[in-house]
Structure formats: structure tokens, C-alpha cells
Design a protein that fits this description.
The chain is α+β, with helices and mostly antiparallel strands. It contains seven helices and 15 strands. It has one domain: q2cbj1_9rhob like domain (Jelly Rolls, Sandwich), CATH 2.60.120. The structure holds 2-oxoglutaric acid (AKG).
């Protein structure tokens, strides 16, 4: 694994709100993650609460797995790894708390899009010292629904939100970004590569119309000093009630 903290990476993250790390996980680690996800979906998922996942429109194919850190020791242990926590600590300005281990599966042909949003509309934390490590398990290409990020947008703070009506991504931005797509940062990744994005960096992704799956594993952390913002929480609760994830 290649995730040493460094002053230049921290400066890039503070400036851009998103950084790319090649080979964050090794190929052996990627294979172990893939095998455990396949086993978990096959053997465990049906017996878990429905909020453990969101399905695509066919009502069969997994769009997202949620709360893997609660339901699965392999993924809890991965999220709690000392080397990953040491990497995250300076970026969340404190002691990292693992808040979620999730997937965005973006399956071949069926994978739905993710509307323009800032994660803190879901996380509702102040100060916004919270981030996501998005690890490619499949290759992410221009064609299979990569995540696009608006660099520097985290420095403008939270923008007005609106319910999106998208299952699994119930809250988006009231007005999508006006930054042209070709000026946004596109996370093109090989298996094992990762992006790390701040919880107020604007991002989105298109549906996957290709025959190639675009599976991502997400590790979400906050600094132990952050607190829930009641106004953000109220807006999120309303959007979630309008479009439940399951
Ligand atoms: O994987 C995607 O397409 C979207 C991911 C996302 O919205 C996130 O990491 O917060």
C-alpha cells in the first residue's frame, strides 16, 4: 500500500479538495476486497437490514453497499488500519473516526448516475473536517461513469441543497455547478488507485452505459472534533424521507 502522509499531498488537498494516489492498495489487496465483496453480496446481504444496500432500477443489482464497517469484520478492519488512519489524520485535522465503509458499484449497463452534490449535505458536520477515500476496484475510464470533481469548490463552503429524487443519493445541489465538464477533474483510475475528496468538494458521475463494471470502495472519516450541524441535518432528513435509500 502506498499512502504515506506528505506535506505536498496535504497542500494539494487543502488547495484542491481532491487528490489522486496511485496504487493506494496493492493488486493483492484489491483482489481480497473484490473476493470479500462478492462473498458478502452472495452469502450475507439477504439476511441484513434493507438499509445495508441500495439496488439499481432492476431491483436486483446492487448500486451501493452501506455500513460495511458495521456488518463485516474484513471491511471494519480495513477502515481501521493504522497506516490508513495515519494517512487521513492530517487531512481531517485530528484523530480520524471511521464513519462509513461503502461501495458505489456502478454495474455494467445498469449503473445509475450520481447528481452533483457535496457530501456534507449527507454527513452534516461542522467544522467540515471529513473526507472520503474512493478506491478503484475496477478500472475507471472516461466511458464507465468516472467521478468528476470541481477542484477548489470546498473552499466556497456549502451551497444550497435540494432533494434529488435519486435513490441512494437523495440530496443534491439546488443548482448544479456551472464549471464546464472539461474544466473539472476526472478521476480516471486503475484498480488500487484512489482519490481522496473533502466533504464539501462538488462532484458527480454519469450512468454506466458500457459493458464494464466500475466498482469503487469508499472509506469515510471525520476528525473526532467535528459535530453535527442541525440545519444541515434537517435538510438531509427531509430529502431522505422523500427518497429513502432502500
Ligand atoms: O462513485 C460515484 O459515482 C459517486 C461517489 C460519490 O458520490 C462520493 O464518493 O461521495
Amino acid at each position: 500500500m502506498n499512502c504515506q502522509p506528505s506535506a505536498s499531498l496535504e497542500a494539494d488537498y487543502e488547495r484542491d479538495g481532491v487528490v489522486l494516489i496511485r496504487q493506494f492498495l496493492s493488486q493483492a489487496e484489491v483482489s481480497a476486497v473484490r473476493a470479500e465483496l462478492e462473498r458478502y453480496i452472495r452469502d450475507d446481504l439477504a439476511s441484513l437490514p434493507v438499509n445495508a444496500r441500495t439496488l439499481e432500477k432492476d431491483e436486483k443489482t446492487v448500486r451501493n453497499l452501506w455500513r460495511l464497517e458495521e456488518h463485516n469484520k474484513f471491511f471494519r478492519d480495513l477502515g481501521e488500519r493504522a497506516d490508513i488512519r495515519a494517512f487521513v489524520a492530517p487531512l481531517v485535522h485530528g484523530d480520524p473516526v471511521l464513519c462509513g465503509v461503502e461501495t458505489f458499484n456502478k454495474p455494467a449497463r445498469l449503473g445509475s448516475g450520481v447528481p452533483c452534490h457535496q457530501d456534507n449535505a449527507y454527513f452534516c458536520q461542522t467544522p467540515p473536517d471529513m473526507l472520503t477515500v474512493w478506491i478503484a476496484i475496477d478500472a475507471v475510464t472516461e466511458a464507465n461513469g468516472p467521478v468528476f470533481f470541481v477542484k477548489g469548490s470546498h473552499r466556497q463552503g456549502m451551497q444550497p441543497t435540494a432533494p434529488s429524487g435519486v435513490r441512494g443519493n437523495s440530496i443534491g445541489m439546488a443548482t448544479p455547478t456551472r464549471v464546464p465538464l472539461d474544466e473539472q477533474f476526472c478521476g480516471l483510475l486503475q484498480p488500487g488507485d484512489a482519490t481522496v475528496h473533502h466533504c464539501e468538494t462538488i462532484h458527480h458521475s454519469a450512468p454506466n452505459t458500457t459493458g464494464h463494471s466500475r466498482l469503487g470502495l469508499l472509506l469515510v472519516y471525520r476528525g473526532s472534533h467535528t459535530q453535527t450541524d442541525p440545519a444541515l441535518k434537517e435538510a438531509y432528513a427531509a430529502a431522505l424521507a422523500a427518497t429513502p435509500p432502500a
